[in-house]
Specification:
By secondary structure, this protein is mostly helical. The chain contains ten helices and two strands, in the order H-H-H-E-E-H-H-H-H-H-H-H. The protein has a two-stranded antiparallel sheet with strand order 1-2. The N and C termini lie far apart (about 140 Å).
Length: about 300
């Protein structure tokens, strides 16, 4: 007979599983889902504190900041553009010549400024454009060609005086640096007397005959072609030629009654302006001949 099976006592039941321990939280710690926002708040606290300190510090220094902000437009228009122009010219010519050249430009523009204000026109302060020159902005258009011609002539007249003063300093000191500045001043004002477009000569000849613009555009075009053939194309000449074309084209369309009245000039005014214009051209040509310094070969 088979042996009876061995009987084993049943295994005791397993103890019930203990519930998971909840995460520990310290007093004031964020709950789940709030940790990201809490971290962002902590990160922004130093930023906010820094901005607050900056505002308080700026409020204490407002008596220094406000005058600078009020003076900034003037620095940007005249002083700032003048300093930038001197710095850029100095890279090519040195500080001395750059300063002298920009001062000659400033004297030239002051001539326009003084005449315009004398005639009752509202004008802006001179603004310098590196490698382009300088200009003053008329805030109102001249009432007629006679006024426009006077404003245009004021710059070359006072600019010529500045060049003559440079030549005078040369005679006193014997320093050729001032003679070179005088030559540049004579040339600068002579170039501006070209009867074309927005150059001073283009404004002056409105009181003589606007058809002189044709002569001026021919002169500028000839100089532009010569510079290209010489292998150093002059961008400034090209710009003057391009910007002068619209005013030149206006000669070939029918004028309104208002435009015809604008160019009405008395014979006396025309003769006075012609004498000043062509006389100044002759003086500048002679001045360039006197102050020309031949290139010294090493």
């Amino acid at each position: 007979m088979d042996a009876p099976p061995i009987m084993r006592p049943p295994a005791p039941p397993l103890p019930p599983a203990e519930p998971p321990m909840p995460p520990l939280r310290y007093p004031g710690s964020p709950r789940e889902g709030q940790s990201g926002r809490a971290g962002l708040k902590k990160a922004l606290v130093p930023v906010g504190a820094g901005l607050l300190l900056l505002v308080k510090f700026g409020a204490k220094l407002k008596f220094l900041i406000l005058p600078v902000l009020k003076f900034f437009p003037l620095l940007l228009k005249t002083g700032g553009s003048m300093i930038v122009t001197i710095g850029l010219y100095a890279l090519a010519w040195g500080w001395g010549f750059a300063l002298g050249f920009v001062l000659l430009l400033f004297v030239h523009e002051c001539g326009h400024l003084l005449v315009a204000r004398r005639l009752g026109l509202r004008v802006g302060a001179p603004v310098f454009i590196p490698f382009m020159g300088a200009f003053i902005a008329l805030k109102e258009a001249p009432r007629n060609a006679w006024i426009e011609a006077q404003v245009g002539l004021g710059g070359p007249l006072l600019g010529t005086v500045g060049a003559v003063l440079c030549e005078g300093v040369y005679w006193v000191t014997g320093n050729p640096f001032f003679r070179a500045l005088a030559y540049v001043g004579f040339f600068l004002n002579l170039f501006n007397l070209a009867p074309v477009g927005f150059l001073d000569g283009g404004r002056i000849v409105t009181a003589l005959s606007p058809w002189l613009w044709v002569v001026g555009i021919g002169v500028i075009g000839f100089m532009m072609v010569q510079s290209v053939l010489a292998g150093h194309a002059n961008f400034l000449l090209f710009l003057v030629f391009l910007i002068s074309l619209p005013r030149l084209f206006s000669l070939f369309r029918r004028r309104t009654e208002e435009e015809r009245r604008y160019f009405e000039v008395t014979p006396a005014q025309r003769w006075i302006m012609a004498g000043l214009y062509f006389g100044l051209i002759a003086f500048l040509v002679v001045g360039m001949g006197v102050t020309f310094l031949p290139m010294q070969r090493g």
